[in-house]
UniProtKB/TrEMBL annotation:
The gene is srlA. Pfam families: EII-GUT (PF03608). InterPro entries: PTS_IID_sorb (IPR004699). Keywords: Membrane, Transmembrane, Transmembrane helix. GO terms for biological process: phosphoenolpyruvate-dependent sugar phosphotransferase system. The chain crosses the membrane at residues 20-48, 69-88, 125-143, 150-172. This is Glucitol/sorbitol-specific enzyme IIC component of PTS. It comes from Candidatus Promineifilum breve. The keyword NADP does not apply. The keyword Transmembrane applies. PANTHER family: PTS SYSTEM GLUCITOL/SORBITOL-SPECIFIC EIIC COMPONENT, PTS SYSTEM GLUCITOL_SORBITOL-SPECIFIC EIIC COMPONENT.
Amino acid sequence: MDFLVSLAEGFIGLFQEGAAVFVSLVTGIVPLLIILLTFVNALIALIGPDRINRVGEWAARPGLVYYPVRYILLPFLSVFFLTNPMAYTMGRFLPERYKPAFYDAAVSYVHPPTGIFPHINPGELFVWLGISAGITSLGLSIVPLAVRYLLIGLVVIFIRGIVTELMTARMWPRTDAVEATTTAY
């Protein structure tokens, strides 16, 4: 009989713990996300969508000097202002040869800034909260970890953007050759 009582208490305890986590989210992170989303939308309205779109056109210019613009600045601004998954649409201003690399950079950056800017990817917030729980349990600040994660993310997306652009450039002639042979029939 004690076994059944313990099983029933454990079963309901699981749901009580889930409810406690839910209440902590509703009173903690949800209001923060709403305020951040409101701020970012207001900032976009103040800056103007046309100006933000012009950044994408600027990043599409050819040359090595535009690599950091294309694979650091543009993904960062896209992810910050448009959030996940809308950030990927900023690639529409780039020529076809740059789109795969921009997408790779942008999709790789939707998680690293979540520790500082949770509005970017609220779905990934649970991953960040799980990682940062170990730091907070030690009584340490999570801010240094969040800043390092954001900065390392910028380095990684820059490298990924360049590598993907080089791979795309190498594969592009093969795609043209396949298209030429299929249209010949």
